[in-house]
Amino acid sequence: MAEASFVAGDWGTSHLRLFLCDAQGESLDSATGPGAAEVAGNFADTFDSLTVRWQRDHALPTVLCGMVGSSIGWTQTGYVACPAQPAQIASACVALRDGRIHIVPGLSCRNRLRAPDVLRGEETQILGAVQLQPQLRAGRHLLCLPGTHTKWVVLEDGSVTEFLTAPTGELFSMIRDHSVLVADRAGTGALPSGAGFDQGLAESARFPHAQLLHRLFECRSRRLTGDLQAEAAAGYLSGLLIASDVRGAVELLGGATASAINLIGARALTSLYAKALTLVSRDARTIDGDVASLAGLTHLHRLLSREVPAHAQ
Q1: CA 250 – CA 273 distance, rounded (Å)
Q2: d(Cα 222, Cα 215) in Å, to the nearest integer?
């Protein structure tokens, strides 16, 4: 078995994933735990209890990203302003426990709509994607990280220059669970697909310039007329939302980029976005989100090991 070199962790709002890694960033062991919201400030004890078996001989260096660096986290790391390069992100990490633990900062920008925008956690997946796909280090590329708050990110020569957030997943959950538009809860999983989703995409494509607001009521009216099965309503809603997200983001940010959009995330969700991208004649290149996150944490560990300055706290 390879020798353990460091601990990598993605500590989000709802869950924690920790990995014991060798020098190449390969996972030797893993652990899961409560998210930042659940630990209620008890980060140190939670971390120690989950990693004690890995740290018996000596304390391993650790890199953590996600909400662990937010206002509800272990410590606040703030945001690196775009354009942001990997070395800048590494140098803005906040060090704890005499530098044995580093917390990764988020990113901020004024987006294409001249509004303030922030992300936290996705910066590590972006760094990992650049390591996994060397072609992203040169030229201009558009990345999409689907989720509760989908992030559309512009890369130029490996540097994050700007991004745009769409609360697509949050809107889907709110409308599905707290409105009359999707009244029948049968089959309303978090990631609906199948005929309802495909129908939503197809109907969106028929009138591509129609405002999303003018289409949402169809989730109810089409069920009342029999045009849509009750169990397909959530999928139809998802199709409308994702089609609108994709079309708007590509129109705003997709100019002068390679035709392929890089999707980073879980397979079930990126596959829905890949389908929607065909509506705007764009191909998709998919990168697994967990793999990207670990690759990004590994890259940051290597930068920090070269004694890139980090803020101590």
Answers
A1: 12
A2: 11
pLDDT digits (tens, 9 = 90+) for 81-130: 999 999 999 999 999 999 999 999 999 999 999 999 999 999 999 999 99
Same domain, yes or no, for 125 and 16?
yes
Q: Are residue 259 and residue 228 in the same domain, yes or no? A: yes
Query: DSSP state, 91?
Result: H
The DSSP code for 194 is T
Which structure tokens are listed for 24?
């190449």
- Checking 35-40 for CB contacts under 8 A at 24+ apart, the result is 35/11, 35/67, 36/11, 36/12, 36/66, 36/67, 36/68, 36/70, 36/72, 36/73, 37/13, 37/67, 37/72, 38/14
Structural domains in the chain (count):
2
In a domain, 159, yes or no: no
Helix (H/G/I), strand (E/B), else coil: 289: helix
**CATH number, position 248:** 3.30.420.310
* Burial (Cβ within 10 Å: 0-12, 13-18, ≥19) of residue 2: exposed
Q: Rounded to an integer, what distance in angstroms lies between the CA atom of residue 310 and that of residue 242?
A: 39
Same domain, 213 and 112: no
Q: What is the mean pLDDT of residues 153-164?
A: 96
**Cut 0.85: pTM above it:** yes
